[in-house]
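Quick note —
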Amino acid sequence: MSVQNSTNTSDKKKERFSSTGFILAAIGSSVGLGNMWKFPYITGENGGAAFFLLFIVCLLVIGLPVLLAELAIGRSGRGSAATAFVRVGGRRGWKGLGILQVIAPFMILSFYIIVAGWTLHYAVTAFSGNLFSNTDFAGQFSQFVSGYMPIFWQFVALLITGSVVILGISGGIEKFNKVLIPSLVILLIVLMIRAVTLPGSEEGVAFFLKPDFSQLTAESALVALGHAFFSLSLGMGILLTYGSYVRKEQSLGSATLAIGVGDLIYAFIAGLIIFPTTFSFGIAPDQGPSLVFIALPAAFSAMPWGGFFGGLFFILLAIAALTSAVSLLEVPVSYTMERFSWSRKRSVWTLAALIFLLGIPSALSLGMAPGLTFGGKAFFDWVDFITSNIMLPIGGLAITIFAGYFWKGAAEASGLRAGWFRVWLFMLRYIAPILVFLVLLHTSGLIKFK
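Predicted structure written out below.
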C-alpha cells in the first residue's frame, strides 16, 4: 500500500477519542504494572525519597518533551506508528523505525499479559481465601509459575484485552478507561488509607518522603531516567497511535501535562501503599519483583481483614495491567488494519492468537520448561530484555531526533507558544537525545556503575 493510499484511508477513519477519553486512555497506558510493581522495588533499592525526587525531575526533563513529540507526530500523521514519521514529512527510511515501534509492543504484550494473568489469579485466590491458607508464599508462587495455570490466566487476560480493543476507540478503549481509571483511583485511596494507618507505618512514610541524597549514585540517576521514560509508555508506539485518534481541537500541551501528572500521582500513591505496608511488617523494600507476589501477601495475611485488602490490592494490579495491555494491543491492530485493510475484528483476534502463542514459551520458561534458558536468562527474561532495554530506547531516540532536527511542522503541530516551543525544541535537540542514549547504553549493559 502506498503512503498516499494509506493516507486517504486514514483520512476516512472516523474513530476519535473525546478529550477526556483520550487523557484517561493515555493515563491508562502509563499506569501499568511498572508503577505498582517495578517502581516500588527500584525506589527501595535506590534509597527511597531521594530517588523519587530524582524520578520527578527526569519525568519533567525528558518524559514530558518526548511525550508531547509522540502525540504531535501521531496526530499529524493520522495513521499507525509504522507510517507516522513518513506521513508528517520524513523520508521513507524513517518507516523502519516506525515499524520497530509496532513490533515492540507486540513482543512486550507476549510476556506482559502473563504477569497480568498472575494478578488475576492472585485477586481470585485472595478473595477466596486460598492465598492465605498457606503462609509459604514463596512456595505458592513457585508452584503456581511452575505449572500450566499461568497459561490459562494468560488466555483470560488476553481475552479481556481483545474484547475491549475489538469494540474500537470510543466504544471500547475509551469506555473501558472511563470505568476503570476512576475505579483505580478509588482503590488506590482505600489502600493508601489502610497502609498509612497500620502500626509502624510512619517509618515507611519517612523512607518514601524524607530524602537522603547520600543514597543516590550515578546508577540511581540512570535507573530513574529509564523509569521516567518507560513509565509514560514512550518509545513503544502507543502514544503515536493514540495521537492519531486525537481531535484537532485538543490541546496537546495541556494533555501532556495531565498525563504526566496522572502518572506521577499514581506512582506517589503506590509508594504510600507499598512502603508503609512493608515497613509495618518488617519487610525489606528492596526485594525486587518478589516484593509484590511474595512479600506483600505475607503482610496482608498478618493484618485485620487481610484477605479483603489483599484482594483489593491484586484487583488494583489487574486493572493497571489490563489498561496498559489494551494500549499495547491497539498499536499492532492499528497497523494491520492500515497495512492489510483488515477489519478490526480480524486484526484483534489474529494478533491475539499470535501473541498468545509467542507468550507460551515465556510462561513455560519460568517453571515447566527450564530448558528454555539461554545465556543464563529464561525466554521470558530475554523477550523483556530485548524490548525494554534495546527496542524502546531506540524508539525513543528516534522520536527525539526526528522531532528535534527533521520535522519542519513541529512548531504548528505542537500547539505551543513561541517561548515554550523554543524550550521544547532545545530539550529535544540537546538534552533528551543524550540522556536517552545513556539509558540505552545502561539498559543494554554497555555501561555499568558500581
